[in-house]
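A quick aside before the break. I want you to see a complete sequence-to-structure record at least once, exactly as it would be stored in a machine-readable document. Don't worry about memorizing anything.
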Amino acid sequence: MEERIRKELEREDPTDFHKELLTHCNDLVRLSRDHMTTFYDRWDEFDDVYNGRRVPDEKDNRAQKRGEPTKMVVPLTYAQVNTFIAFCFSTFFQRERVFELVGMGPEDSKPAKIGEALLERDLSYNTFEARVHQFLLDVAKFGLGVLKSGWVQEKQLVKEMVQQPTLSMLGMDFGTRMVEVETWKVKYAGNKVFNISPYRFFPDPRLPFSRLQEGEFIASEDTVSYVELRRLENEGQVAGIDHIKSMRKDLFEQSKRRMCHTTLYDEGSGIPTIGSKRSSTHVWTEVQVKLVPNDFMVADKPLGPEKYPVTYNVWTINDMRVVKCEPLGYVHGLFTYDVGECNPDMHNLVNEGLAGIIDQLQSVITWLINSHITSVRKNIDNKLVVDPAGVEMTDLKERRPVIRLKQEASRTGVDRWIKQLEVRDVTQNHISDANELQSIVQIVTGINDNALGQFHTGRRSATEARSVNSAAAARLKTIAMLLWKGAIEPLGRKMLSNLRDGLDPETFVKVLGEEGDPNDYIKFSKVNKNDLVGDYDFEMFDGTLPSERYAQAETLQELVLALFQSPEALAILGYDPRKLVDEILELKGIRNPVRFKLDQVRMQEMQLQQQMLGGIGGQQTGTAEGGPAQSGQGGPIMQPPGVIRPPGLQVGNANGAGQNRPAY
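That is the input. The structure line, written in tokens, reads:
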């Protein structure tokens, strides 16, 4: 952050620049808030259904006291959502590395592998699997998932021993000693990936998510403590912390729905900023907004000379004060947010997820099951028609196991005084109706028995089972591909751009270890930052389904076998068997098969062993005249391992034929 901007933000009384920037950002964020808050009630409902939350009524409370089952939420949405997550998760993470890069030319091959290793290091540090799981969960429940990335440099205070002079005179040191000092060391320099809750995400509502990067702004909110703001101020990232005021009550009431992840904001908990200043909590809003710097004046000078839009990163606290304003500064020139949708449709800003698509069917199924439970709960109790003149009513009221007749009624028959009332259960078909509706749910979502890992009854061949699985996965794969292309692949490209722009040689060598050649660092980063703009030397591939990879491996394997059975085909087709075998191993999940190949020393050792075995075999199996072996076995000569017999050469048969065998 520029020093002149820092001085403006540190003033207790906001300057004209401060007021103008704050008003501009608040107006844009309010535009998005007013639109996004209209979806919160539906999202709350989907979240409750997914988690099986239901407020028990009076009848449920009475049933619970009697030890009877209460009404419930049928976990159908839970099963559908988690099956969808499992499918996408296995698709994205089936390979050893999420992002596989291929250079466009021969000179890009090694830098591409370096990029893979660096990306994998950043993903591992961010526990990317957890980030993707939350992203997919938001997509399935709310219709959209949001990922945010950025370059960070995390430091840690460490203790180390250093030499210090014990005595200094006339500029000369006399003796040294070891002293323990605390120094700040860079713990991690790389990409950071965050999940953004849809409740806290505020895009430009004037454009669909497919045109997210064309919008004027994107904002997100979070809660931040006073201590964390002090840490950021110490690192020089924010300014003016001393003049932050507590959260207004009206802002707190508006924020409670967006801070849905914690019970701190439940009804009756009070405003969290009440108390000491050091224990206060604030709403931190990050606004990435396109500004024309020449239109904003800072101390009688323009914010910048540019007369065209430049993306700035502006932080506000409690919608009342700006604490940061600086250019976003990434070489890729994009907003750092990426959005994935379950069913992208440019005619709607927010589209339904899986939970929304099956919401009505889920409600009917839940009602059918609960009505059946209620009916059974009523009918399971004995409904008796009783004449009090002949029955001891105390036995009935106290639910005693024996119901006594009065003495004067004991000889007149039981049926005259007490009889069970026959009640017909009208909900007995509700379970079958619910099963029928469940099959409709599977048709709607495409998550059927095969996707759930449950084969339909009946016998199937392996080919038929593979075809059914492929068809069942087709619709889910379409959604997975859209999520990859819409959010995860753009995220990877931004991370790669940040690595090429911000990674220093020391970290580069530290990550790659012995393979970290400084010359490779120069090739990877391209030295000149301008070379990174519009540079697409790397191509990112999405993961294919496991069944498809094995099918590809089997096809190539059949080709290799055919080539070995017909050596003439090698010359005609021109395929390299070694490359085909390497590809088969890659498709079956065995990375870097080159490590199994023979080096020059091992090749010479095996050739020497073959020559020795060949000589011994020639002495024992034949005579000087070329007749059969003296042992009388007449068996063929065993070919040493690793030796390929040229076409046309015969080794000998059971009758001792084939005299032109090679002399090993």
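Two observations worth writing down. The longest strand covers residues 144-165. The longest helix spans residues 462-502. We'll return to this after the break.
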